[in-house]
TrEMBL record:
<protein>
    <submittedName>
        <fullName>NAD(P)H-binding protein</fullName>
    </submittedName>
</protein>
<feature type="domain" description="NAD(P)-binding">
    <location>
        <begin position="8"/>
        <end position="132"/>
    </location>
</feature>
<dbReference type="InterPro" id="IPR016040">
    <property type="entry name" value="NAD(P)-bd_dom"/>
</dbReference>
<dbReference type="InterPro" id="IPR036291">
    <property type="entry name" value="NAD(P)-bd_dom_sf"/>
</dbReference>
<dbReference type="InterPro" id="IPR051604">
    <property type="entry name" value="Ergot_Alk_Oxidoreductase"/>
</dbReference>
<dbReference type="Pfam" id="PF13460">
    <property type="entry name" value="NAD_binding_10"/>
</dbReference>
Length: 253
């Protein structure tokens, strides 16, 4: 039986990866900042990290935050993994990190390079955005009476459970380098996703599209974050919304 460490193992993706690995017969350790016995802040490193990777065959690195520190966290993890003789490091990234000059994407791309240059066996999987992230963004935007969207932007959301299953599969195999990207089943205008969200949550909002400026917006508008040729996901955004909001009575403000 192999031992696999999942960083960020209590998060949206990590907990599903850990569960899938256990179902597949792996012994799983979960690392997060606040969950014993492997409560470790990767940005700080320390002795706890060494204990977490000791005896581990594979690390699935899901821990990430747009608030900064991903590169430092990855450097600490890689150093500890080298010392422990970890065989395989699997990293989850985002489609477009090498094209869209958004700060968080740049950090993810930098971590990809650290993984590739780590000297460890490695696999990197890029996916498009998860359904729940798109829903969280739309929930925040739909708070005011008018829902303001960036004009001419599309997205390709994917079901997080499908990504978790693929990561678990990759973790159980040999290092694969850059795995084929995973995109959701449909490339959709952000307006259509917003209207689906409003319908599912019973919110009535005027939708206004506003053009933005700058290179980051241009790259998003050009579809640098999309993978239309890798639309391998099955679950649609409407199916996600039905599962999450289907029991509501539509009388939300």
């Amino acid at each position: 039986m192999t031992t696999t460490l999942v960083t960020g193992g209590t998060g949206t993706l990590g907990r599903l990866v850990a569960g899938r690995l256990r179902t597949d017969g792996h012994e799983v350790r979960v690392l997060s900042r606040r969950t014993p016995p492997y409560a470790v802040d990767l940005r700080e490193g320390g002795a706890g990290l060494g204990a977490a990777v000791d005896g581990v065959d594979t690390v699935v690195h899901c821990a990430s935050t747009p608030r900064g520190g991903d590169e430092r966290a990855a450097a600490h993890l890689i150093e500890a993994a080298r010392r422990a003789g970890v065989r395989h490091l699997v990293y989850i990234s985002i489609v477009g990190v090498d094209r869209v000059p958004y700060g968080y994407y740049r950090a993810k791309f930098a971590v990809e390079r650290l993984v590739e240059e780590s000297g460890l066996g490695w696999t990197v999987l890029r996916t498009t955005q998860f359904h729940d992230l798109v829903a969280r963004v739309l929930g925040a935007l739909s708070g005011p009476p008018v829902l303001v969207l960036p004009a001419r932007i599309a997205d390709q959301p994917i079901e997080v459970a499908e990504v978790a299953a693929r990561l678990a599969q990759l973790a159980g195999g040999a290092p694969a380098g850059r795995a084929a990207d995973m995109g959701g089943p449909e490339v959709r205008s952000f307006e259509s996703l917003a209207r689906a969200y409003l319908a599912a949550t019973g919110r009535r909002r005027a939708v206004v599209k506003v053009p933005l400026v700058g290179r980051t917006y241009r790259e998003f508008r050009a579809g640098g974050h999309l993978a239309p040729d890798r639309a391998v996901g099955k679950g649609t955004f409407e199916e996600y919304l039905a599962g999450r909001f289907g029991g509501r009575d539509g009388r939300r403000g």
